[in-house]
């Protein structure tokens, strides 16, 4: 491969809106991306997988594409372009079916010889899901595990943010170009990931997020991980696609056991029944991965706190699922007004949180003295 | 021959004096109306001419000029028909001019000589009494409305003929008096009482506090949880209108034409609930000749915005200025009108588009969809909602329970007490309620003692409460303390105010 070829490869991988599934096979069939660039229409349609319309598309796109200028733009942007033959191309990706032709990375890419675990789950998650994702994120990060996910709302983002908070490294695989922050509300997380991990995508710069692009990116999330942890998932969800991919690629699947009857746990419980491993802390995942790790004794002790009687009563009633004040007052056997005061005190102490107007959840698990 | 009759027009919600002058002279037969008139006043020509003929008078074939003075103020409305006809009859010599002294005449004419009702009789009569006028001749249908004002004679007339006979002394009409009518009419919205509201302890408490300090309140809850029912109960826990307030409110309703066939003043607090498709003009009042809008009809009462997130953003934003000024200024071609608009704003909305949040087993909304929904209320608007309460979906078992909740009447007693202590506190100031406290009053009346101040400072920091919320919390805490009959704001008052703060929606 000479230096010129990479420009052609960049053209082939980086055209916004490229027909992604199978671009690698097409390039292989043609010989190289450079050959594709030079072929005329008849030659193009002769290749398996290229229809007449697609051939026209390619011709039009290469007319609009300035090879040198675009490549220079890429180099200036600080985004890395890593084609499949590049020595930096993640080893975990090379040996899966449908390996991407190339990946783009903003920041780093996961290290090959370091464990990595994907934390995935529902966008619209419960407070329980959030706490659990954060717990696993930080515990795994403390053990030096890289956290892979999709930077989505909910479980994905919470797990990754917690890993970064714990000083670990985390990588997001996006369904759009790496220079686009999607969802835009995760801007802060996006910036943090760039510094302490990386943003990865197989789609070219400026590719806008589209529904069809997300399922294929899930195969990269699972491929980059040694195990996939599902925290909360509905029965039909993008998370289940990630799990299917993981199983195809021979990755381990772990699930967080949830309550039966809770729609957010139906996915996890179904996976559990099908053989996924239920886990309650990071060590369970380590056992699953057969890893010797020297953190065995590091299990976190539950915090012990001392609370006045009424506060302790209310705290015991609270759980990870949002409860209304009147329910809380009822269960703690306190008058509503007093319960309100106690809840505000607990919020100030950082033990509870208002989640939805007039609904409260417990946000830190402590033991009473 | 010349004659002059005293009549009144309406500007904003106040009456103003108009002299109706008639002159009949020789010359080309014509009937001319002058005096800066709007379309409906100009049309009076045909009504007066026909009504006169159908009342048995022959319309003079002469040069007739009618003038409404002052000539530089736009006149509108149909109330000038009757005074025009009377002025004309006086000029014709059919009515003795001496009977017209010190007498206000208003009313619309029908073609057969009948007198039909008009809007705004009450404020006109009020103004007339202020000017020392002795007697008002008003349409029969508006007589009860006029009689709400003491110390002035109200003569209700049904036809033009009757009016002429009365003025000539050929017929006696007794002044309309309130005793002859049922003044104790009670229009309390039937069946609305807090005792029928089951459960909802938090919401009830929120309403009580809101009513005590006239705080604006936002109710958030699932569809069918009972937000509208709770809102309708608010007038039943507010003290009833005082005499001055009742006159003020009745005046507005009179101008808006909503007082017809009503006996006695409006005594209950108004409850106005516009649909969410309402326009900004309908909300503030307006039109070529402005009429009071929903916010003025809610004066001294409750403006309830159900499905608040569905209102157009613009309609909500126009509420901001009246919420500060407690009145609305409408500027039009023909003048600038000021309508009072001192109301308590009550909003109701769902917690998310589907309404089930935070019950995640039912809610199907995505986080961004929920955010977008909540963001339909702008931050400045939310900053004006002192209290935010959650209205829970009620359990079936609670619905069936026989236990009766506390009645509106007993809640009202506490509210009245809390309002009395506010009245005492704000004596000599421009404000009446805790919700109206400015920075100066907050510094003076919401002082926190040492330990409590430290605790509050800690709470503000830990809970990430903004400066805006800070003043809101203090105002509400003041009201909570007033309800408890405490002079000093305590920790429990602050804690409750923090809970009722809408920080959850804001953040």
**First-to-last CA distance of chain B:** 76 Å
CATH topology of the largest domain in chain B: Rossmann fold
CATH-defined fold name of the largest domain in chain A: Rossmann fold
Q: What's the overall geometry of chain B?
A: elongated
Percent strand of chain A equals 5-15%
According to DSSP, the number of beta strands of chain A is 14
Radius of gyration of chain A: 24 Å
Estimate nothing, just give the exact number of structural domains of chain B: 3
Classify the secondary structure makeup of chain A into a structural class.
Answer: alpha/beta
**Overall helicity of chain B:** 25-40%
The percentage of residues in β strands of chain B lies in 15-25%
- The domain count of chain A comes to 3
Can you give a write-up of this model?
The complex is a heterodimer of chains A (369) and B (507). Chain A is α/β, with parallel strands linked by helices and 369 residues long. Chain A folds into three domains: 1-77, DNA polymerase, domain 1; 116-298, Rossmann fold; 303-368, Winged helix-like DNA-binding domain superfamily/Winged helix DNA-binding domain (Arc Repressor Mutant, subunit A). Chain A has 17 helices and 14 strands. The N and C termini of chain A lie far apart (68 Å). The model of chain A is unreliable at 295-299 (pLDDT under 50). Chain B folds into three domains: 2-180, Ribosomal Protein S5, domain 2, CATH 3.30.230; 194-430, 3-Layer(aba) Sandwich (Rossmann fold); 437-507, Orthogonal Bundle (Helicase, Ruva Protein, domain 3), CATH 1.10.8. Chain B is built from 23 helices and 18 strands. A five-stranded parallel sheet of chain B has the order 11-14-17-10-18. Residues 180-185 of chain B have low confidence and may be disordered. Chains A and B meet through α16 and α17 of A and α7, α15, β18, α20 and α22 of B.
């Amino acid at each position: 491969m000479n230096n010129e070829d990479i420009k052609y490869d960049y053209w082939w991988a980086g055209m916004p809106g490229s027909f992604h599934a199978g671009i690698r096979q097409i390039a292989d069939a043609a010989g190289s991306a450079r050959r594709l660039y030079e072929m005329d229409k008849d030659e193009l349609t002769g290749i398996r997988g290229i229809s007449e319309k697609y051939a026209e598309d390619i011709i039009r796109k290469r007319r609009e594409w300035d090879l040198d200028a675009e490549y220079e733009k890429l180099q200036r942007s600080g985004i890395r372009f890593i084609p499949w033959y590049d020595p930096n191309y993640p080893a975990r990706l090379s040996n899966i079916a449908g390996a991407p032709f190339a990946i783009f990375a903003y920041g780093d890419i996961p290290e090959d010889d370091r464990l990595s675990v994907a934390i995935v789950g529902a966008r619209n998650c419960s407070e329980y899901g959030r706490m659990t994702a954060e717990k696993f994120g930080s515990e795994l990060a403390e053990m030096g595990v890289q956290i892979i996910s999709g930077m989505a709302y909910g479980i994905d983002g919470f797990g990754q943010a917690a890993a970064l908070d714990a000083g670990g490294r985390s990588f997001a695989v996006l369904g759009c170009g790496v220079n686009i922050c999607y969802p835009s509300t995760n801007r802060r997380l996006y910036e943090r990931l760039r510094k302490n991990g990386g943003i990865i995508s197989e789609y070219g710069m400026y590719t806008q997020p589209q529904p069809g692009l997300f399922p294929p990116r899930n195969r990269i999330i699972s491929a980059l991980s040694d195990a996939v942890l599902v925290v909360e998932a509905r029965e039909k969800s993008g998370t289940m696609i990630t799990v299917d991919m993981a199983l195809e690629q021979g990755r381990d699947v772990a699930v967080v056991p949830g309550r039966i009857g809770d729609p957010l746990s139906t996915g996890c419980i179904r996976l559990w029944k099908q053989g996924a491993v239920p886990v309650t802390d990071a060590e369970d995942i380590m056992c699953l991965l057969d890893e010797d790790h020297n953190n065995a004794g590091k299990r976190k002790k539950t915090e012990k706190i001392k609370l006045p009687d009424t506060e302790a009563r209310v705290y015991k009633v609270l759980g990870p699922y949002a409860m209304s004040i009147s329910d809380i007052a009822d269960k703690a056997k306190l008058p509503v007004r007093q319960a309100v005061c106690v809840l505000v005190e607990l919020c100030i102490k950082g033990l509870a949180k208002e989640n939805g107007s007039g609904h409260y959840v417990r946000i830190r698990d402590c033991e009473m003295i | 021959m010349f004659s002059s009759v005293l009549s009144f027009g309406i500007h904003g919600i106040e009456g103003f004096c108009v002299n109706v002058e008639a002159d009949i002279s020789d010359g080309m037969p014509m009937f001319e109306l002058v005096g800066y008139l709007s379309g409906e006043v100009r049309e009076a020509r045909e009504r007066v001419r026909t009504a006169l003929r159908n009342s048995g008078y022959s319309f003079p074939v002469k040069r007739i000029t009618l003038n409404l003075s002052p000539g530089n103020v736009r006149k509108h409305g149909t109330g000038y028909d009757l005074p025009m006809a009377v002025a004309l009859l006086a000029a014709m010599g059919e009515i003795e001019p001496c009977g017209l002294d010190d007498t206000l005449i208003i009313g619309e004419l029908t073609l057969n000589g009948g007198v039909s009702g008009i809007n705004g009789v009450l404020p006109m009569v009020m103004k007339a009494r202020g000017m020392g006028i002795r007697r008002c001749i008003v349409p029969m249908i508006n007589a009860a409305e006029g009689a709400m004002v003491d110390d002035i004679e109200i003569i209700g007339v049904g036809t033009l003929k009757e009016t002429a006979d009365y003025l000539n002394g050929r017929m006696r009409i007794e002044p309309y008096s309130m005793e002859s009518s049922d003044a104790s009419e009670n229009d309390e919205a039937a069946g609305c009482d807090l005792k029928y509201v089951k459960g909802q302890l938090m919401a009830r408490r929120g309403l009580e506090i809101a009513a005590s300090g006239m705080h604006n309140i936002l109710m958030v809850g699932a569809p069918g949880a009972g937000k509208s029912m709770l809102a309708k109960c608010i007038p039943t826990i507010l003290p009833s209108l005082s005499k001055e307030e009742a006159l003020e409110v009745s005046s507005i309703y009179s101008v808006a034409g909503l007082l017809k066939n009503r006996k006695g003043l409006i005594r209950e607090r108004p409850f106005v609930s516009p649909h969410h498709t309402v326009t900004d003009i309908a909300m503030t009042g307006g039109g070529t000749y402005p009429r009071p809008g929903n916010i003025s009809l809610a004066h001294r009462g409750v403006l309830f915005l159900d499905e608040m997130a569905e209102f157009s953003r613009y309609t909500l934003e126009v509420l901001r200025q009246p919420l500060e000024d407690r009145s609305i200024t409408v500027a039009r071609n023909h003048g600038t009108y000021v309508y009072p608009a001192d109301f308590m704003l009550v909003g109701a909305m769902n917690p998310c588009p589907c309404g089930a949040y935070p019950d995640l087993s039912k809610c199907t909304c995505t986080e961004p969809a929920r955010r977008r929904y909540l963001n339909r209320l702008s931050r400045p608007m939310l900053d004006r909602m002192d209290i935010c309460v959650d209205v829970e979906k009620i359990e079936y078992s609670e619905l069936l329970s026989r236990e009766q909740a506390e009645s509106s009447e007993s809640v009202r007693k506490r509210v009245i007490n809390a309002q009395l202590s506010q009245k005492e506190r704000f004596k000599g100031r421009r404000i009446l309620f805790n919700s109206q406290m400015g920075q100066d009053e907050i510094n003076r009346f919401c002082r926190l003692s040492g330990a409590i101040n430290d605790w509050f400072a800690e709470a503000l920091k830990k809970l990430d409460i903004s400066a805006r919320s800070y003043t809101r919390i203090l105002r509400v805490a003041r009201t909570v303390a007033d309800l408890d009959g405490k002079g000093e704001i305590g920790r429990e008052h602050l804690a409750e105010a923090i809970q009722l703060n809408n920080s959850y929606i804001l953040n």
